[in-house]
Amino acid sequence: MQNSRITLGHGSGGKLSHDLIESVFISQFWNDISARSDDSAVFSLGNDNGNIGDKQLAFTTDSYVVKPITWPGGDIGKLAVCGTVNDLAVVGATPLYLSAAFVIEEGLLLTTLTEVVKSMAETAAEANIKIVTGDTKVVERGSADGLFINTAGVGVIPSGLRISGDGAKVGDAIILSGSIGDHGIAVLSAREGLVFANELKSDVAPLNHMISAMLNSGSSIHVMRDPTRGGLATTLKEIAKQSKVAISISEEKIPVKQEVTAACEMLGYDPLHVANEGKLIACVAREDADKVLDIMRNSGYGQEATIIGEVLAESSAMVMMKTKIGGTRIVDMLVGEMLPRIC
Amino acid sequence: MKLVDEFRDSAIAKRLASKLQARKTAAVNLMEVCGTHTVAIFKHGIRQILPQSVKLISGPGCPVCVTPNNDIDNAITLVQDTSVILTTFGDMMKVPGTSSSFQYEKAAGADIRVVYSVLDALQMARDNPDRKVVFLGVGFETTTPTIAAAILEAQRLKLNNFFLFPAHKVVPPAMRALLSSDDVKIDGFICPGHVSAIIGSKPYEFIAKEYGIPCVIAGFEPLDIMLAIDMLLDQIASGKSQIEIQYRRAVSAEGNVVALGILNRVFEVTDAYWRGIGEIPGTGLKLRAEYRKFDAKDVFGIESGYDTEKESCQCGDILRGILDPPSCSFFGKACTPEHPVGPCMVSSEGSCAAWYLYQ
Fold this sequence. Notes:
The structure holds two protein chains of two kinds. Chain A has eight helices and 14 strands. Chain A starts with 14 loop residues before the first helix and ends in a 13-residue tail after the last strand. Chain A has two domains: 31-157, CATH 3.30.1330.10; 173-330, PurM-like C-terminal domain (Phosphoribosyl-aminoimidazole Synthetase, Chain A, domain 2), CATH 3.90.650.10. In chain A, α3 links the parallel β5 (94-105) and β6 (130-139). Chain A is 29% helix and 24% strand. Chain B is an alpha/beta fold. Chain B has 15 helices and eleven strands. In chain B, α1 (10-22) packs parallel to α10 (222-237). The chains are: A alpha+beta, B alpha/beta.
């Protein structure tokens, strides 16, 4: 009975979303390119195309339906640019061009829309990409929630570079670029008026400059992912599954801001499941890890970058965490929608 | 003082872990009654740092899990009336009734809203005078005082469109019911911290006096729980049975007298059905006669909850600590957090869900 209608849980980015993608979309849309299940599709236009040469194109799209549309540290426009830029960057692409499509609810204040679009332009300038095409639709009051934005983006991957979720190698260091859960809790606080986290700012940021510096260092970077919906736990589990390895992380090494811890304790959430929009996870050959860490810390987008764990030689796709008190536990994907508990 | 980091200090934890591991303890079963403790124990990996002779068993203390599925069915029937707004705490959304859940009914068009507090539901009633706002009252003594306060406020405001669907339960008599059966040997209780912040330590005294079993009321951080286990093992080693409070920063012997006063003014004790266990006398709460006009079951003519669980589901034995979750043939196969079969898997604080997600 639970399967016959779409519930909010299907949009959580966790297990139910995965089930939906596999059972409904992949079964119909499966092809050699979609099969890789990375944040962007990667393909080549063929060597006979003079403009592209043997470079590969990365192509991705994402829709943004967040409520409220502004929050401390960001807004839906900044998010719509960063989300797509980051999905391109984590497969090793240099993001170039974005489209922007707006579904606007009748009655939205023009000043609100103008502010959001201005924020998109500023973020595009920061990321050094161009928004080159777009679309606008207005729907009746009640048919949308203020403003929905879709962006799609293309980027170019240098020849020979292949970064995919299936590339993690045994012994790789797992690097996290900074504190987790800031975005999810900042948006939640703004939406629900939670006073204990109102100092907290979302981490939404374009990561392409930092990633470009990492790649230019010639380091052996095997996997990059941005842990958005579903959080760090879901992304690590996806990497472990795609790469057919196990992952071990240490709770003590994972930076979590005090406001995020407090909100999670109050609501019964696990910070490992809370969304981020400006954080990177990278699986990097151990011998290059310190070099990559330095680059991330100096990039302006990863000051708190740190090694949180390593890739282990087991095909179980298990993610284990050593807890602060010295125990261990499984880390698994978020199941459905995150819901606050009773007590 | 941040009240979290201090209680997760890894250096202190490691010292305490060494102390626990060095103990020469005969085999003991310690039951954590509360679902929040269960999750904390798994999340922090506390089981692995205990000596093998100390077994932790999870008790029935997740109010979401023990809400009979018939209550969920009835609330779903109620909200088919388009004048009704059903409000509930978030963790009830996914819980399956006999053939549906709130999450699914919401997707199908029912007006079901998640609230963080009963006071949000009260405000919703004030903001929507032409709608009937029903709050599904699930929870133990931790949440009932605020619900009682909301009823008093509704009375003061003369609201005639705010109703409580009462499914509350109380903890100590359920512990007595657990002890009255010989199915499971319990050598010590880790008592719930939040419940005890309201009721204090006295309601547990019968456990020590009549059954000779030590109790420690514990907080929810890893050091709290480790210390409570250490205190229980001390009592067991010296043959004592007392009610001790580890969670002193929140719990006193008398409890929260003001909250208890409000609770008793509005509610009286009744019998209640526990999903997976059955009816336990004196473990429910109903509105007193003068507040019965706020009782959705009375106003809308709904019978009290009972259980229509699948017969082969072994949650009853798991809730009473007789079986570990993996011993159930459904566990991790037919029954997962995405598609729960029985009560222990429905809430993130259920013992099967915690075991499945973290162990």
